[in-house]
């Protein structure tokens, strides 16, 4: 009887702590709903939430849909009107860009690109609230939110410059 109790406790603790960063199972479901099967309003809300969570204060430059892609471009709010208008015409070099893929069945968050400070703040606010900068810098597992049961697979990474948060959720 003692062995059975010990085994059940061990199985329960291993299954609860499988990700190492203490996300509740329902959190994965919430994350999946946040990044998949969006409509145009929920995609705009997510893009605004991402820009709002960044360390830099951003304002929307433009939203652009081309073929199967929907992109939201944000510029620093401190940008002068002249620089804002120039960025509208010529494109911007200091944009935070939120990318979505558009399908017949809905819109899917693809990725967001920007500098590390901004994306770390987004990562903490939107995907992994318990992470610290030290953990994210020292351990890859704190830059990867993955769950096989729900199919959630989101990663904070640096594939050169800029940094990105990429959604590989299925």
Task: Fill in the keyword field for this structure.
7 strands, 40% helix, globular, alpha+beta, seven-stranded antiparallel sheet, 170 residues, signal
Walk me through this protein's architecture.
- By secondary structure, the chain is an alpha+beta fold.
- The chain has one domain.
- It is 40% helix and 29% strand.
- Strands 1-2-3-4-7-6-5 form a seven-stranded antiparallel β-sheet, sandwiched between helices.
- Helix 3 (40-53) crosses helix 5 (116-127).
- The chain is globular.
- It starts with a helix and ends with a strand.
Sequence-ordered SSE layout with sheet pairings:
Blueprint: H1 2-16, H2 25-35, H3 40-53, E1 58-66, E2 69-76, H4 81-90, E3 96-103, E4 106-114, H5 116-127, H6 133-138, E5 144-147, E6 152-158, E7 163-167
Antiparallel strand pairs: 1-2, 2-3, 3-4, 4-7, 5-6, 6-7
**Secondary structural class:** alpha+beta
Instruction: Spell the H/E element sequence.
Output: HHHEEHEEHHEEE
Mean pLDDT over all positions? 88
- Rg, nearest Å: 19 Å
**Distance between the amino and carboxyl termini:** 41 Å
Number of strands: 7
Query: Roughly what fraction of the amino acids lie in strands?
Result: 25-35%
State the low-pLDDT regions, or none. Answer: 4-18
Largest sheet: 7 strands, antiparallel
- Share of helical residues: 40-55%
Q: How many structural domains?
A: 1
**Alpha plus pi helix count:** 6
Shape: globular
Strand order of the largest sheet: 1-2-3-4-7-6-5
Q: How would you concisely characterize the structure shown here?
A:
By secondary structure, the chain is an alpha+beta fold. The protein is built from 6 helices and 7 strands; from the N terminus they run αααββαββααβββ.
């Amino acid at each position: 009887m003692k062995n059975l109790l010990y085994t059940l406790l061990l199985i329960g603790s291993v299954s609860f702590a499988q990700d190492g960063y203490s996300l509740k199972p329902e959190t994965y479901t919430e994350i999946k709903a946040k990044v998949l099967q969006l409509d145009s309003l929920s995609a705009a809300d997510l893009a605004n939430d991402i820009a709002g969570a960044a360390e830099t204060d951003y304002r929307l430059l433009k939203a652009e849909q081309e073929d199967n892609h929907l992109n939201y471009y944000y510029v620093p709010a401190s940008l002068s009107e002249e620089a804002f208008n120039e960025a509208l015409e010529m494109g911007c070099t200091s944009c935070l860009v939120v990318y979505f893929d558009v399908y017949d069945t809905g819109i899917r968050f693809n990725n967001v690109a920007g500098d590390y400070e901004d994306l770390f703040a987004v990562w903490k606010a939107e995907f992994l609230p318990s992470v610290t900068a030290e953990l994210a810098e020292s351990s890859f597992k704190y830059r990867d939110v993955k769950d096989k049961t729900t199919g959630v697979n989101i990663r904070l990474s640096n594939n050169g410059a800029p940094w990105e948060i990429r959604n590989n959720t299925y």
